[in-house]
C-alpha cells in the first residue's frame, strides 16, 4: 500500500523524476510558463508552490533550500526578489493550469502551467453623490417642452416624456379617423 507516499511516480525512477522536476521548476521560474503533459503539470504545480513559499519566507535558510532544488543561482535570486511583491497577499495557488488539448504524435493530454500574475487595482471613476443625481434627473423631467399646434394659453407647454415615448412612429390619417 502507498500510504503517505505523496507525488506521482510517472513511470520513472526516483532520481530521474527528481532531476526532471528540478529542471522543470527552474524553467518555469525562468520563463514564466511551460507546456507539458497534464500529469507532469499537476506535480510541477506542487514543486512550484513549495519554492514560492520558501521565497516568501525570504531568509538565508530558505534561500539555501531553494538552491538545493533549483541549481541556477540567477533564477533563485530573481524568484526571491519578486516573490514578496507578486505573491505576498496570496496564501497558495501560485500557478494557473490551462488545458490545451492533445499532443499530435501520441494524443497525450497537454497543459500549460503559468505563474499567476497579481491583479492590478482598477481606477474607479468618481461618482456623483445620489442627491446631485436626483436633482439632475428631476430637473430633466420638469423641463417644459413646446408642443406645436396649441393656440390656447397654458396648453403649449408639457412635461418632457422619456425618450422611449418620443420615439414612437407618427400617427397616420387612418389612425386619427378611428379615434
Enumerate how many helices there are, as a single number.
7
Name of the CATH homologous superfamily of the largest domain: Ribosomal protein L17
- Work out the radius of gyration: 33 Å
The spatial strand order of the largest sheet comes to 1-3-2
Low-confidence stretches: none
Q: Quote the average pLDDT.
A: 83
Span between N and C termini?
90 Å
Main pleated sheet: 3 strands, antiparallel
The name of the CATH architecture of the largest domain is: Alpha-Beta Complex
**Principal-axis shape:** elongated
What is the CATH domain class of the largest domain? Alpha Beta
Written overview of the protein:
With about 180 residues, the protein is of the alpha+beta class. It folds into two domains: about 15-115, 50s Ribosomal Protein L17, Chain: A (Alpha-Beta Complex), CATH 3.90.1030.10; about 130-179, no CATH class. The chain is about 50% helix and about 15% strand. It has seven helices and five strands, in the order H-E-H-H-H-E-E-H-E-E-H-H. Strands 1-3-2 form a three-stranded antiparallel β-sheet. Strand 2 (about 95-100) and strand 3 (about 110-115) form a beta hairpin. Helix 2 packs antiparallel against helix 3 (about 60-70). It is elongated and about 95 Å long. The model has no long low-confidence stretch (mean pLDDT about 85).
